[in-house]
Amino acid sequence: MQLNVEQRKLIYGKPAGHSLIKGVAGSGKTTVAINRIPYLLGNYICQDNDKVLMLTYNKTLNKYIEYLFDMALKQWEDGNSTVFGMDKNKVKICTVDSLIYEYYKRFTVKNKLNLNVLSDNKLKQKYILDSINLVKKSFPQVKILQSSNNLSFFVDEIEWIKACNYREIEEYQNCQRKGRTSRNNDGPQKLLKNSDVREAIFTVMQRYQDFMAKDGFVDFQDISQMALDEIKTEVKQKYTHIIVDESQDLSRIQLEFISHLYNENDYSSVLFVADNAQSIYPNSWIGSGRSFASVGFDMTGKSNVLAKNYRTTTQISQAAYSLIEQDRDIIDDEDFVKPSLLDKQGMYPIYSGFSSLGEEMQYIFKEIKSLCAENYNYNDITIIARTKNILLEAEACLKTNNVPTHLIANNKEIDFKENAVRFQTIHSIKGLESKVVFAICINNKVIPMKACAMDDEQAHESKERKLMYVGMTRATDRLYITSNGEPSKFIWDINPDYLKMNSKCNFKCFRNISVEDYMFKDKINDMYSAEEKVRQWLVAQLVNSYNFPLESMELEYKVNCFSSQGYVDICVNKHTSSGRVPYIFVECKKLASGVEDGLRQLKSYMSCDKNCSYGIVTDGFSIRIINNELQLIDDIPPFTNDMMQNSLTSYKYVDLKHKKHFIISTESMEYSSVFVNDGGLDCEIEPSELRALKIFNDIAAGQPIYINENVEGEVFLPSSWYNINEMVFMIKVKGDSMTGADINSGDYVVISQSNTAENGDMVAVNLDGNATLKKFMRMGNSILLVSENPSYEPIQVNENQISIIGKAIGILKKNFK
After folding, report:
1. What is the pTM of this model?
2. UvrD-like helicase ATP-binding domain: which residues (predicted)?
């Protein structure tokens, strides 16, 4: 378990009462919490009655955290000396609810109560409906009592009142109630304080309690109240150190219960770990203006922030943040932590839309087969959805294709070694991670789920948006988002620059382009047609993702098909020895209307024009690409200068050692003569005077450095630029972390192999098995890897956490000014 400098600082900090770690998804909050236990165990368990308690939110996490704790404890025993030894029996890891249930049982025994837990939701709803019918006679002026459509509101509101431990009507009448409205003819209003509406709601709760008591039932909220009453009279076991994971999800009554477990002394501690952007439960107390101080823990000057997401790739992190930054209620919260980007490059998330769940699951099955061919295991893959019913249908589809599956029920432990695709609700995967995540059925009215009549729609949508964010940030390597039928509005809220249409091509997801920004306006018959929206998006993709110039395109290209004529929506042309000829035909259909009819039309057009090399058909959701043999292929080639009439290509070469730059002109960067201009006359360099530099998309960890399958090609540059014994190669830059040094995504950086560096050198380093380009800065015993982009945080590491691959000595730029 590799720990960074920030995490180690928090792990080794001296206990000082209560404190808070606020962190983004994937920042290592739970890693810090788990690794702090051995430190406390070995250094701050001074008395026989001292113990450490770690509380998790649900059972799903328990086995995982216990597994990580065993690893952390072994590392500590192997590599650290301790003051008091390491007695594992002094540590308890459990859920908050399991402790609450333990105290509830003590309460019932002490008070000689024989109670049953009300777990039948239908019976619970009957009790509440009977209560409403009883109470509405006394409150004829309260409209919410008059409609049966408000049943779900009363269920939720009663649970919330109890979770807040409001036992007297005065408490409920005067509390700040956010997220609820009373809808009348004048529009939505908040549930007003000291109102008849609140009195009616509280009275319904009292009658509900009467109905339960008569039949010998208690609900889960009653269990918490009884447990709190019991722990206030007698605490069975206090803990010197308490660590609370996912504390943003706890209710007020749970937080008050925890406070009574604390054995405060000079070296004791309570550590809360939280991320308000992941607060997805309606009864959670912290947030929306409520702080830890309201339950006795004033965090002024006691908060630490972990803002760097180490779990997900830069691309997944960007997509996830673009979703929640749409919501001011989330990002304006005082406890919100904005994620800082780390340069961990990967694939952009994939979004695909389908007409049915069957089509959606067939696509997922094919992707799983492809992933397994890339050496992913089944247990590297998790399929998540909003509800369990969706998962049951999806699992059945995969089982028919003989894919091993494991449906994880809520609050059940997971066997992480079982080689099967896991199925989990988004709620149950919280706190876990998976190399590959498929977020399925992200449909309209599924997420965000339809709000009940009494919900504040904005507050409800914020909770649902956070839930989607939680699901997206579980993926460490690959994220797929799929829908069937009408997609969720959240799909459109993700910045389309961070979503691809599939894993095999470079087309980004559909985005609306304003009519004012349309291209070829003089060629358009109907500016406001549904098909034109898709065509304009596709034109922008050809320009931005594939570098085709607008002058290579024309709209409504006429094709003679035997005795009739047709018109191709977009024709991309190229120049050959025979002149300008069609290169790509594109058919655009109405958004989400399907592509099969368009594919047949496209094949007909291509059959009638043998010059055309590629065809594309899309409805903005799906895309099909074919070659001149009418076979489906993955992608089209990007634009190259030899497609234009003047085939001479120019590149800019920046010599970092001598702070000079040259313009290189050639017909090909492969083995042919080049012309070099350093501000004066062109100088022709013959092929015999050139040196081949291999290009790598990435550099694998370990030795040898060069891994054959990663070689993209070769570039030939003047031999005189490099020492004869200097081992040099090129890497293709991914991402925008070095734009301040004029190194952009798609540029090629020349690396001179070296295992040492000086302050200020731009180096390629191997960090956690990934190659990254950064400025090297030594600070005492640690090293800073600095990006040349203020959006990215510096990476602070110990010297043994990285290996230097080489120094950057040159940059080759195809696109330059």
Report:
1. 0.81
2. 2-313
pLDDT tens by residue, 419-457: 999 999 999 898 889 999 999 999 999 999 876 655 667
CA dist 602 → 318, 541, 592, 615 (Å): 35, 19, 18, 7
Identify whether 774 is a catalytic site residue: yes
User: What is the spatial distance between Cα 573 and Cα 567, in angstroms, rounded to a whole number?
Assistant: 15
Binding-site residues from annotation for ATP: 23-30
d(C-alpha 251, C-alpha 268), whole Å? 24
Instruction: Out of 774, 775, 807, 813, pick the active-site residue.
Output: 774
What is the DSSP pairing of strand 217-218 with strand 381-385? unpaired
Q: Which residues are annotated as a binding site?
A: 23-30
Quote the DSSP letter at residue 637.
P
pLDDT digits (tens, 9 = 90+) for 363-390: 999 999 999 999 999 999 999 999 999 9
Would residue 737 show up in a list of annotated catalytic residues for this protein? yes
Among 279, 462, 737, 787, the one annotated catalytic: 737
* Range 451-455 contact pairs with CB under 8 angstroms and sequence separation of 24 or more: 452/149, 452/150, 452/152, 452/153, 452/156, 453/147, 453/149, 453/150, 453/153, 453/183, 454/144, 454/150, 454/153, 454/157, 454/180, 454/181, 454/182, 454/183, 455/153, 455/179, 455/180, 455/181
Enumerate domains of the chain plus CATH numbers: 5-105+226-308 (3.40.50.300), 119-218 (no CATH), 323-498 (3.40.50.300), 515-638 (3.90.1570), 649-813 (2.10.109.10)
Q: In Å, what is the CA distance from 67 to each residue of 35, 62, 382, 666?
A: 12, 8, 19, 58
User: Could you give the dihedral angle defined by the CA atoms of residues 173, 179, 182 and 186, in that order, rounded to the nearest 10 degrees?
Assistant: 130
